[in-house]
């Protein structure tokens, strides 16, 4: 064992209580998916065999209208005499 390795292991024991490595892995995407859970569940309720591409187009469509409010036109104002 080299002196550098022994020093590195000694520092790990002093800092973390163990010379082992930190825990790795785990789920890193659950929070992002959970943020859209309501949208995903509504899309599945409408169409239970929806594809990701169809879901993406729904999301893009709803994002457009969320940013640009639709102006409602009343039937009386749209008729021209």
Overview in brief:
The protein has five helices and no strands.
Question: What order do the helices and strands come in, and which of them pair?
Answer:
Layout: H1 3-16, H2 30-35, H3 37-46, H4 52-67, H5 75-78
Termini separation (Å)? 95 Å
Helix content: 55-70%
Judged by helices, strands and strand pairing, the structural class is mainly alpha
Order of helices and strands: HHHHH
**3D shape:** rod-shaped
Stretches with pLDDT under 50, minimum 5 residues = 70-74
How much of the residues is beta strand, in percent? under 5%
Helical stretch tally: 5
Number of strands: 0
Mean pLDDT, rounded to whole units? 77
Question: Largest sheet, described in full?
Answer: none
Radius of gyration: 28 Å
């Amino acid at each position: 064992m080299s002196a550098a390795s022994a020093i590195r292991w000694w520092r790990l024991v002093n800092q973390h209580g163990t010379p082992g490595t930190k825990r790795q892995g785990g789920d890193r995407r659950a929070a992002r998916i959970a943020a859209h859970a309501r949208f995903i569940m509504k899309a599945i309720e409408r169409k239970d065999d929806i594809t990701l591409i169809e879901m993406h187009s729904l999301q893009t469509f709803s994002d457009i209208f969320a940013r640009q409010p639709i102006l409602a036109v009343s039937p009386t104002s749209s008729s021209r005499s």
